[in-house]
Amino acid sequence: MDVAVKTEEKGRNKIHPQKFALLAALAGIMMMFAAFTSAFVVRRAAGNWLEFRLPDMFFYNTGVILLSSLTMHSAYYFFKKGNVLLYRSLLVATLILGLTFVYLQYQGWVAMYDIGLPISGPVSGSFIYLISGVHAAHVLGGIAVLVVALLHAIVLPFKVTPRRKLRFEMSLIYWHFVDFLWVYLLIFFVLQS
User: What is the structure's pLDDT at 3?
Assistant: First the structure.
């Protein structure tokens, strides 16, 4: 009995290896974006920098990604509570909001082009395209994860198992990460304008 309790207590203090790998990957992604934003600051200080107002579309999509984080977290909550209808519905809503975010990101790039900032134009605009484009690629990766999660929610019989809970937690962590990352980037862009 004591051995079982000790083993259980040890398990509570350890992070699952897959979750640890995800967190390590997210740390690497964060370092990449820190390098991008550092390069942005250094290049801006070098002079020959065109200042411009960030198109409003980038602010609209911020609201969308924040809402998607809320729907994803709510889906996880209802998954654990066993409310299948809300769990599935909120996953669908998160997927739609994720796709909407990417669409609005594209519209932000179109707005930049329309004000005379093509991707091959001034370096200040090129940095925005690069940084927001790489972020959008990470959101698309999250959308792929959402599609798989939604397929599991629809195709597999509903059960809250440790394995499914872990998968959902990892999806949730990643989705919150891309949300946080976009908010960081937007604040950075605004402060650097």
Answer: 44
Nearest of 13, 23, 3 to residue 176 by alpha carbon? 23
Range of the domain at 145: 2-192
Count up the domains in the chain and report the number: 1
| Residue 46: per-residue pLDDT | 85
Q: Across the chain, which distance is largest between two alpha carbons, in Å?
A: 72
pLDDT digits (tens, 9 = 90+) for 130-159: 999 999 999 999 999 999 999 999 999 999
User: Considering the entire predicted model, what is its pTM?
Assistant: 0.89
Determine the Cα–Cα distance for residues 118 and 138; give it in Å rounded to an integer.
Answer: 22
Query: Is 82 in a helix, a strand, or coil?
Result: coil
How many Cβ atoms sit within 10 Å of the Cβ of residue 87? 21
Give the single-character DSSP code of 53: P
Asked if 125 and 119 touch (Cβ cutoff 8 Å), the reply is yes
Q: The tokens of 136 are what?
A: 């959008």
Can you give the pLDDT at residue 121? 86
> Which CATH number belongs to the domain containing residue 180 in this structure?
1.20.120.80
Res 11 pLDDT > 60 = no
Distances (CA, A) of 31 to 4, 28, 180: 40, 5, 14
> In this structure, what DSSP letter does residue 115 have?
T
Buried b / exposed e over 112-144, threshold 16 CB at 10 Å, is beeeebeeeeeebbebbbebbeebbebbeebbe
